[in-house]
Amino acid sequence: MDVLLARPRGFCAGVNRAIAIVNQALDRYEPPVYVLHEIVHNTHVLEELRRKGAVFVEELEEIPPGSVTIFSAHGVSRAVEEQAKALRLRTIDATCPLVSKVHRRMIRLNAQGNDVLVIGHKGHPEVEGTCGQAVGPFHVVSQPSEVATLRVTDPSKVGYVTQTTLSVDDTAAMLAAIRHRFPDIIEPERTDICYATTNRQAAVRQLAAKVDLVLIVGSKNSSNSNRLREVAEQLRTPAYLIDHAGELEPQWFEGIKRVGVSAGASAPEHLVVEVVTWLQRFSQGSVEEMGGEEEQINFLVPDLEV
Questions:
Q1: Following CA atoms 41, 45, 48, 53 in sequence, which dihedral angle do they give, to the nearest 10 degrees?
Q2: What pLDDT is recorded for position 302?
């Protein structure tokens, strides 16, 4: 049974930056360092940071006054930022720069007098943070069917922003519905879906066409990892989302000649290596990496002075 690896896969620049911020804060200020919500959506990354002294919380009230507190890569609302000040927390913002860009566009569209459609999954931390930047009316839309019933202030003054980790294909259907309902919709010059999401989905689309089964390494609550599984399934290639090699089931591979492997943007490469090792032990064959987009993007770690 041969293995074909997608390229690119795994960590993106925003995840690398967020993890580096937590590690550097632990080195500089010593444990415990508190993190509001999961810094990224991967159980293995979180467990490694917990061992070093990071404490993940869901509410700011759980954090002792004066403590070093990091906002996750998904971003937070302005209300959370103000609450942190009121609680005298020493904050560091690990929001992905591409998410921060969406925040700025949200504010700008509202300030220009527009209703803003926030395309994304209701309740996702990134969507909550984006909505929390609003200075005017906004509407979260998750399905094309929801567009027809939207009530906006002025149909000629509507713009949209997008969760960065959505499926490119699903978003196309959503945008078609929005453009039909709002012909004057104000659109960004380029999509809010981030480069890493786009590149990984394109790679899995190619991968799924060449293999009998696809494995996506990523945690169950990772939006971008779930979208990768869906991309493979849309091409009618069986696909599984697994957190680690221990979740692999031998019966999945009955009659399978070639397995494709990729990883979500918050999944570390060592988990991919462990999956490939398991597959080789199960049925030794060749291991090959696809050609693909060479990602050169890096984000600077901000000054951690708090």
A1: -50
A2: 85
Q: What is the pLDDT of residue 21?
A: 97
pTM above 0.90, yes or no: yes
**How many other CB atoms are found less than 10 A from the CB of residue 32?**
16
CB 103 within 8 A of CB 130: yes
What's the pLDDT tens digit per position in 204-250?
Answer: 999 999 999 999 999 999 999 999 999 999 999 999 999 999 999 99
Give the helix ranges, DSSP H, for the chain. Answer: 13-29, 43-52, 78-86, 97-111, 125-131, 168-181, 195-208, 223-234, 269-282
Phi, psi of 88 (to 5 degrees): 60, 40
Q: What letter represents residue 166's amino acid?
A: L
Strand order in the sheet with 158-162: 138-141, 115-119, 158-162
Catalytic residue selected from 59, 126, 294, 305: 126
Instruction: Identify the CA nearest to 130 among candidates 202, 77, 176.
Output: 77
* Residue 49 CB neighbour total at 10 angstroms: 21
Buried b (16+ CB within 10 A) or exposed e, 256-275: eeebbbbbbbbbbeebbeeb
Domains, the chain: 2-11+194-289 (3.40.1010.20), 13-97 (3.40.50.11270), 115-181 (3.40.1010.20)
Residue 72 has a pLDDT of 94
Q: What is the largest CA-CA distance in the chain?
A: 62
What is the reported pLDDT for 252? 97
Active site residue 126: yes
Question: Which stretches of the chain score pLDDT less than 50?
Answer: none
